[in-house]
Structures are given as C-alpha cells and as structure tokens.
C-alpha cells in the first residue's frame, strides 16, 4: 500500500470529516468544530495521509513555543487502522519538528484510550504528569475570610508571583506546566509568565500583602462559555479561598461555567470536591513528553 503524507488543504475536509464520524463507538468527535481554525493557524501544521489520493488519516502538531510542540488530532479511517498509518504520520511530524529545531514534544491521552496508551508505551514516551478535568457553576456572591484579598496580579507583583511558581512550598501544579488555550500543555517559563500577567490573565490571593495563591486563565477551542483555568497553585489555607473567588469572577465575567485540567494533587482534588467542582470527564489524562532528537 502506497501511503503519501502532505499538508492538509481545504479540499480534504469532506473526506476527513466523514471518517472522523467513526472515531469512537459512543462518543462524538470534535474535528469538525476545529477544522477551519486548524488549517488557518500559522503555528500549527495539519498533516494528512492519503492512499490513491484519498485522505485516510490526519495528525496535527502545534508549536506552543520556539522549542515545544504539541501533538493532537491523530485520526485514522477505520478501514485503514492497524496498517501503520499512525506510524507514518508520526514519522512525518517528527521529521518536521527536527527540521524546525523543536526539541520537546508533548501530548495527553485519556486513561480510557488503551490504543493510544499502548502506542505511547511502544514508542518509549514517558508520562510526566496526570490531570483530571473538573468543572462547576459560577457563584454570584462570595465572602472571603478577613485578611484575604482577591486581586489581579500585575507587574509590581511579578517577583513574588514568580517565587510562588518556583517554590516547592506550595500545592497544586508542581511541574510548572501551563495548559495554554486549546488544552495544550507548555512549560511555564518566565517570559510566558510575564506575558500572561501583562495580558491580565493572572489572579491571586494576598494575605498581609503577600501573594499566597495564584491562578492563570486559559481558554478552550470548542467551548467559549467556560472560564478555563490553565494553572493553579497556593498554600493549603489559600487554595479554597482562591477557588471560591474564581467562581465569583466567572460570574462577573458572564461565563456559564468554570473549569480546567487539574493536576492530581490530593490536597487540591479534595478542595475541588469541597468547592463543588465535579469531574467533567471519565478517566485521568496522562501527559506524555519526549525529546525529538533522542533515539
């Protein structure tokens, strides 16, 4: 079987969306919701595998930074599964990333997806963290304990905020990953953090004028009604306060819900449950990371 791989084009839409209808047995796919955006986004590359000029598989990589690539959207038509299409697409993306000098790759896989988990294991790709999506409704009022102030973090808070991110003495996200827009994990580097503060996306709790917790807003590709959290970290005492204040902020900003992918920190998960957040997906999402230049 002769399989060719090229960049996807608008004319591939009908064929691709047709086989994406059958990605899973009892769950709808979202490719039709993001197809146009994926084609147009200059930081991404959508590859298509074709047999006799007919699309039979796709895979996408998105450059979240000048050194990190995010893999997503691997789909293969049912009639062509088990014939090495995924491996061929995989090799093409790896070649593209090496030529672009993108060293680090990541992707996430749901624990229910045994096929993808097996594929990651066979390719010696290592799990670096686990996340569980949670969601809840906004609240119209909130009363913080005396001495705690909810605030939008600004440039004057940067040094204290960055110390909070890097210190081992806090709970929440311990791997220094930010879930950027579209649910794409990237390393929370200092330049990115500064940019997020400048854009007004960082919120925190201060006690005695000291920043003790912070969260960073993100967004989803397919649901703009969700106030999405891409990072959260703080002290034992401040995290429950922060979660309540964020629910109120979501209400003020007229979002219908608030949620995100939260790290499997036992303390944080306990606070989420007490704060009336619920698991919005079945299973745990494993974050894989590998070096494109090794092996």
Write the layout of secondary structure elements.
Blueprint (H helix, E strand, L loop, with lengths): L3 E4 L5 H8 L10 H10 L3 E8 L2 E10 L4 E9 L8 H15 L4 E7 L3 H9 L3 E11 L11 E5 L5 H9 L4 E2 L4 E4 L3 E4 L2 H9 L3 E6 L2 E9 L7 E9 L4 H14 L4 E7 L2 H9 L3 E2 L5 E7 L4
Parallel strand pairs: 4-5, 13-14
Antiparallel strand pairs: 1-2, 2-3, 3-4, 5-16, 6-14, 6-15, 6-16, 7-11, 8-13, 9-10, 11-12, 12-13
Report what the structure shows:
There is one protein chain. This protein has 8 helices and 16 strands. Strands 1, 2, 3, 4, 5, 6, 7, 8, 11, 12, 13, 14, 15 and 16 form a 14-stranded mixed β-sheet that branches. It has a two-stranded antiparallel sheet with strand order 9-10. It has 295 residues and is an alpha+beta fold.
């Amino acid at each position: 079987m002769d399989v060719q791989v090229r960049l996807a084009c608008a004319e591939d839409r009908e064929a691709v969306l047709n086989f994406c209808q059958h990605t899973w047995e009892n769950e709808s796919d979202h490719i039709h919701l993001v197809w146009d955006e994926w084609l147009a986004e200059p930081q991404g590359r959508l590859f298509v595998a074709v047999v006799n000029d007919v699309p039979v598989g796709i895979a996408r990589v998105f450059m979240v930074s000048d050194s990190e690539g995010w893999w997503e959207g691997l789909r293969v038509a049912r009639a062509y599964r088990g014939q090495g299409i995924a491996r061929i697409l995989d090799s093409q993306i790896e070649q593209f990333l090496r030529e672009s000098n993108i060293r680090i790759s990541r992707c996430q896989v749901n624990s229910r997806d045994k096929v993808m988990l097996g594929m990651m294991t066979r390719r010696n790709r290592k799990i670096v963290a686990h996340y569980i999506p949670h969601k809840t409704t906004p609240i119209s009022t909130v009363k913080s304990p005396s001495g705690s102030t909810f605030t939008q973090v600004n440039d004057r808070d940067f040094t204290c905020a960055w110390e909070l991110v890097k210190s081992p003495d806090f709970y929440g996200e311990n791997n220094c990953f930010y879930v950027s827009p579209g649910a794409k994990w990237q390393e929370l580097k200092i330049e990115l953090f500064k940019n997020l503060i400048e854009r007004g996306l960082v919120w925190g709790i201060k006690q005695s004028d000291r920043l003790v917790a912070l969260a960073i807003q993100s967004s989803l590709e397919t649901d703009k009604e969700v106030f999405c959290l891409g990072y959260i970290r703080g002290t034992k005492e401040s995290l429950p306060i922060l979660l309540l204040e964020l629910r109120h902020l979501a209400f003020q900003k007229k979002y219908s819900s608030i949620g995100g992918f939260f790290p499997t920190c036992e303390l944080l998960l306990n606070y989420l449950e007490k704060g009336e957040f619920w698991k919005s997906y079945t299973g745990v999402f494993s974050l894989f990371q590998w070096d494109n230049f090794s092996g």
